C-alpha cells in the first residue's frame, strides 16, 4: 500500500532541465515575497516623506509649520526604522530553512508585528495631524477666520462653532480611520494570520 | 552560474519530491503548477545557505513543506472544481481491488489537514519519527501520537468509502 501510494503521489510528468531553469526566472508570490514588496514600498515612501518633511522643517518661514512637519519627520523616521527591522527579519527567514513549526511561528510574529506597527503608525498620525492643525488654527486666527467666513455663527477663531466643528471633525475622522484601518489590515493579512495560527496550534497540540 | 547549474541538476534528480508535495497539497493542475514554481523559487533562494550537512532530499522536503503549508491559493470565483485525481474513477472492465483501495486511501489523505499531510508524506518516504519530528519542529513522541491518529482516521475514511460503494 505504501509503495502504491508513493507511486500515485509522484504523478507521471517530470519537468525538463529547460523548464526548471525557466522557473527560476519567474516572480514568486509567497506571503514573504508579498510582505517584502510591501515593506520595500513603505520604506521608500517613508524615506521620501522624511526628506520632504525635513525640507519643510528646515526651510518653512512659519514656526508652526516647522513644528508640524518636524513631528511628521520624527514619525516617518521611527516608522522607517521599524520597517527596516522587519525587512531584516523577513530576509533572515527567506534565507534559512527552519523546521515547519519555527517557520510558522516566525511568520506569525512578523505579520503580527507588521500589522500592529502599521496600525499604531496610522493611529499615531491622528493626534499629530489634529492637535497641530488646531494649534496652527489657534495661532493664525486671520487664516482660520478666512476659512470660516462662510460658516454661520463663526465670527472669530475662538467661536463655539469652531470648537464644535473641530471636535466633530476630529472624532468623526478618528472613528472612521480606526475602523477603516482595522478592516484594511484584516483584509490584507487577518485571515492569513488566523490560518497560520490554527496550523501552529495543531502542531503544538499533544 | 555554476551554482545554478548544480542546483538545477540536483533539482532535476529530486523533482519527484516537489511533485509529491504539490499533488498532496493542491487539487487542480493549475494550483499544482503554481506551487511547484513557488517551491522551486524558495529552494533556489535558500540554496546558497545549504551547507550539505543534511541530505539534499531532506533539505528539499523541508523547503517544500514550509512553502506548501504557508501557501494559500487565491480563491477563485465560480463553481468549485473538484480534483480529478480524487474523484472516484469509472470502474474499468477488469476490477482491481488494490487500485480501488489505493484510490480510497488517496482520497482520505487528500482530506487531511496540512500538518497531517506533511506527516503522511514523510512517513511514506520511510523517514523515522525522529526525523519527521526534526523537520516539523515537534518531538518524535508527538509524531507517533499524531501518526496513530492519522492511521485511525484513514482507516475509518477508507471503510466509509467501501461502505458507500
Please describe the topology of this protein.
The complex is a heterodimer of chains A (206) and B (165).
Chain A: H1 2-10, H2 17-23, H3 31-59, H4 63-95, H5 100-139, H6 141-147, H7 160-204
Chain B: H1 2-25, H2 29-47, H3 56-70, H4 97-110, H5 114-124, H6 129-136, H7 140-164
Characterise the protein shown here:
With 206 residues, chain A is mostly helical. Chain A has one domain. Chain A is built from seven helices and no strands. In chain B, 35% of the residues are buried. Chain B has two domains: 1-85, Orthogonal Bundle (Rna Polymerase Sigma Factor, Chain: A); 92-165, Orthogonal Bundle (Arc Repressor Mutant, subunit A). Chain B has 165 residues and is mainly alpha-helical. Chain B is built from seven helices and no strands. The chains are: A mainly alpha (206), B mainly alpha (165). Chains A and B meet through helix 1, helix 2, helix 5 and helix 7 of A and helix 1, helix 2, helix 3, helix 4 and helix 5 of B.
